[in-house]
Amino acid sequence: MILNENDYQAFVASIDLLSLHCPVCGVVGLFILYGHYKRFVIIDDISSGECKIQIPVQRIQCTQCRSTHSLLPTNFVPYTQFTYLFIYYIVTLDENDDLITSFDVALQTVRKIKARVIAFWDSLFPDWRDFKQNDLKIESLKRHNILFGSTRSYCKLFVLPTEL
Hints:
164 residues; alpha+beta; three-stranded antiparallel beta sheet
């Protein structure tokens, strides 16, 4: 789990670029590091006292097709500052639960996310309430661009499996 910039840098350092498949053209091992961008992330762990951290997200480029991708661990949700677990908390806990209110996120935002995610999960897999958390995570991330209304396809953003 990524809880600070050092954790993220260790995650990036552990990646073997020669083993990665390009999600656009399918070639293996032709990635180069290609800059980074700053991203704020609300992390799942409130024990550190910091709920919002800034991470320099590493970009990579496929030298075959020139497409670029972000190296995101699986607890980061593409196109949002929330982690998967925080979104899971929003959906499965009461909006006034101490765990949710401790993150200092506007109640209106919490309600909007909850309504959108529940509608999404209900439409794609109505039995989501019976899923194990990891299965729900995998299924929702596969369809993330629908959930957040992104104009970009989810498959163009490379999400690496960091946990089993």
